[in-house]
Amino acid sequence: MVRLVDIAKRANTSVTTVSIVLGNRPYNVMISDATRQAVLQAAQELGYAPDMAARRLRHHGSDHRTIVLAIAHPIDGRLSLISRIVAGAQRQLHAMREEVQASIGVIQLIVETYELGQLQQLRGLIEPYWFNGLLITNTSPEDDEYVEGLTPSVPIVLFQRETRHSSVTTDGEHVGRLATQHLVDLGHRRIGLIYPDAASQAQEQRIRGYHNVLQQAGLPLGPEVVALGRNWAEGAYMAMQRVLSSIASERPTAVFTTNDLLAIGAMRAIRDWGLRIPEHIAVVGCDDAEFAAYHDPPLTTVHLPIEDMAARATLMLLDMIRQRARVPMQESFPVHLVIRRSSGPPNGAEEPTL
Amino acid sequence: MVRLVDIAKRANTSVTTVSIVLGNRPYNVMISDATRQAVLQAAQELGYAPDMAARRLRHHGSDHRTIVLAIAHPIDGRLSLISRIVAGAQRQLHAMREEVQASIGVIQLIVETYELGQLQQLRGLIEPYWFNGLLITNTSPEDDEYVEGLTPSVPIVLFQRETRHSSVTTDGEHVGRLATQHLVDLGHRRIGLIYPDAASQAQEQRIRGYHNVLQQAGLPLGPEVVALGRNWAEGAYMAMQRVLSSIASERPTAVFTTNDLLAIGAMRAIRDWGLRIPEHIAVVGCDDAEFAAYHDPPLTTVHLPIEDMAARATLMLLDMIRQRARVPMQESFPVHLVIRRSSGPPNGAEEPTL
DNA sequence: AACCACTACTAAAACCTTTTAGTGCACTGT
DNA sequence: ACAGTGCACTAAAAGGTTTTAGTAGTGGTT
Questions:
Q1: Mind listing the pLDDT tens digit for each residue in A105-131?
Q2: What are the structural domains, with CATH classification, of chain A?
Q3: Bridge pairing between strands A300-303 and A336-338
């Protein structure tokens, strides 16, 4: 391992000088060009890499650029969201790579909370000054109390959860309303709902939005079934089967699912039952996952700018880390309905164009 | 921040004693039960959390239990693989949580290598003794030289790449043969191929397997088209359009894609062209991604035990970290064909059962 | 000649933990 | 009485970096 002292020896100077040159810190200290070059060259030749442990020990993480993404409940279905969050965070870091000198992109940390169902372990992460910023996603309602009580030593941004810390969110009620209103506008009068057993805050909001629209339209609350288990698609498949086995007159002509994975599970069930989408039952999801546009039929869904949100969350963290921002920030992102072929008017009144 | 010395004061003892008690290290040192209890209680009361930086500075990471998952080329499509790898790694850590005392699950680190296209940044990660084990995935052929040249200070396991380090792999040629042979057995005589522009080692192997089968069967090499860009589904969609626009007599009756995301892109193109799957064109993928079973038609694909592989890789790392194993280990995992409805005999000779 | 300002550089402390090499004490056996 | 043994505990050094407070040397003003 190459240390500062090794470079100092080779460049015939002191450890202090080397540290200043390599960390290109200003201080009130001047270094001649000759010395600077000598140090730089020696470092290059020896292949110096700073010891992060020592650096962080010195000043409790304040200089070390590391952002952690904590995923509270790594349930299968939710993991697919990670991809987009990571992509967004990376995009931001990439764009600012000069500024933040981030040779390292994102560090994401998975906190395993299967048995506890709580984020308690975070304490063990935050205290030891491991990192400089924390992006938390997938928190469940039970985590709320704990998360709110945190007085972290580093800035925190929550993904899709309102909090007294910073957050990036979408208006979940609006999402639910957009999807449901779309179905109402198409003429549906019995609109069912499929949601997962461990609903996140965002999903609860979507359900409220769904209820709002139905009440305002004076429509009956359609069957609401819960998708059980960790595998959302499978849970929704079985949930939809329960819906389908009810008597035909009570069967909804459309279902709203609180995310896209649930939607494809439900769609599979509908097809396996021998019914057509959207002619017999229309389906609308949320999230606009990667596969939504390629599914058959392509899924009507509410598009969430997940990557943009993650990029913004990362920027928030960076700003807070760099003291540019001090107060918690909340930002809500716009969403929009993407109409594809899984939704259409009831009773196949109008055949969808291929 | 609570330090060892704070606990020592409160418990009326020395820093050394506290360190020994809290780290429950044996040494050749004995601690009376009274002292031990006093220390434990003081630590509890003060809410002690060890400073990882100091700990690691002391002995270059050897005690600190952290495994890093490095994803070399975080292209959109490949990110979806992460979910399953993370899930597998977590399962293993969870199963061994007593043994490894891992309050922290997995730390996964995304190395951003967009512009370099190389894993060079890993150097900046390995040298500073950040962690104790490294699980690398998504390396591209260009990374080979660098990865092979690594003489890491920590154990390394590669995912889906043969190497002089340890690895967990599947037999890519076998994967390609399974899929292609299935199509040949169904009676297809023109079998096309869709593969991504930045093919991984595993994917190249699958392509070889495909070639093998066609040659052995004396069949012509079908059209081989490359899916361009980071979005595999989209790339495959356009690639498939190119295939479809060739004259009908040269059009394949089946296509093999080197992963499932490519498959759904191709399927979308086939349907949009007004053709049916599998009657006009059969499709077979690889990976058995989550959505494969729920797609319409459900996708025939080669199932890879990704989670098991990740769990095994994690166990390998743990064993190497704990010195139970010293030599590199290679392990190849069995795969199997999952026949669903996207594949069938050519010319719709036999209608698939719904 | 005394003082100041400025440049270029450095010694040493601090950050917190782990581990080696002890110390002091109470017994035991001769 | 004295070496030997085992127990319970501790002082101090080490690990690599950053940063404060300082030194030495030079040139320029009063």
A1: 444 444 443 333 444 555 555 555 456
A2: 4-50 (1.10.260), 67-170+306-333 (3.40.50.2300), 172-305+337-348 (3.40.50.2300)
A3: antiparallel
